[in-house]
Amino acid sequence: MDAESFNSDMNQMKAELNKKIVELERNQKPLLEQNRKLNDRNRLLQQEMKKIEEKLRHAQDDHLTLKDSFERVLKENSSLKEKRAFPEKIEEYDRYRQQVLEYSKCITALRQAAAEKDRRYDLLALRFRRLKKCQSGNGETDEDKQSSFGGSDGSASSVSLDTITEDLEGSVHCKSFESNYQQLVREHRDLQRAFATVKMNNVEVVHWRQKEHVLRDQLKAANARISQLENIIQSEMSTQEKESVFTATIEAQRDQIIALMARSERLD
Q1: Cα–Cα–Cα angle for 232, 234, 236, nearest 5°?
Q2: Which of 26, 103, 242, 244 could form a disulfide with 205 if both were Cys (CB 3.0 to 4.6 A apart)?
Q3: pLDDT in tens, 238-267
């Protein structure tokens, strides 16, 4: 009797345990399904995290490259600003401009003076030729005048006083004209030498103008380079902002994965 009662108790206990097991399996089935889904999602998140870490490594490499280029650009930008704001270059540029203006005024004045001298020279040459023609038209030389003055009879009546006065006035006028002519020739030679000097200075002016154009081109190139560097700096700053957002997203996803893993462990 004891054995039978014991067996019946054991069978009853076994049946109750089987019921509990069936009930536990029925209750645990949704949890197992949820755990399976969480494991699948965890696996997908780990794969996504690997991809994000790979992108992060590439982004860090790009960041280092851009950082080096950014520092190099900053140095170049500072050097270009120093060159652009260098006071000696600006003073030299202004000094060249003043020299060009002074040389231009000097050239204009000398050209006007040369034109006036040429006009006076042509006028005096014309008067000199007319005087030569007048003297040659008289048909008398100094010897003819002396012979007519001291003729065979030696009388003073053979020479007219008016003719002597005219000859003296013509001689004085000729000497004055020759003196003016020689002075004008000297002035003309001095003017030619001054004009040659101005031509040499004009060559220097052309050289300074060419140098001025070169300085202008260098200044324009420096301004264009500075604008380009500023654009690069702005793009670098936007890249850094994108990288910070990307890093924050990775950290948030990593925290989410850790929370899911902890929840999965609690379910297990």
Answers
A1: 70
A2: 103
A3: 666 766 776 777 777 677 767 766 766 665
What does each C-alpha distance from 230 to 12, 84, 218, 237, 238 come to in angstroms?
A: 87, 15, 18, 11, 12
Q: Nearest Cα to 257, choosing from 31, 34, 39, 35?
A: 39
Cβ density class 31-49: b for 16+ within 10 Å, e for less: eeeeeeebeeeeeebeeeb
Cα distance between residue 162 and residue 150, in whole Å: 17
In tens, the pLDDT along 45-62 reads: 889 888 888 888 888 888
> pLDDT > 90: what percent of the chain?
0
Number of structural domains found in the chain: 1
CA quadruple 188, 113, 97, 88: dihedral sign: positive
Asked whether residue 88 is domain-assigned, the answer is yes
Domain that holds residue 191: 2-139+160-267
Share of the chain above pLDDT 70, in %: 57
Structural domain includes residue 128: yes
Q: What is the pLDDT of residues 138-189, one digit of tens each?
A: 544 444 444 444 444 443 333 344 444 444 445 555 566 566 667 766 776 7
Residues whose CB is less than 8 angstroms from the CB of residue 246 and which lie 6 or more positions away in sequence, other chains included: 55, 56, 59
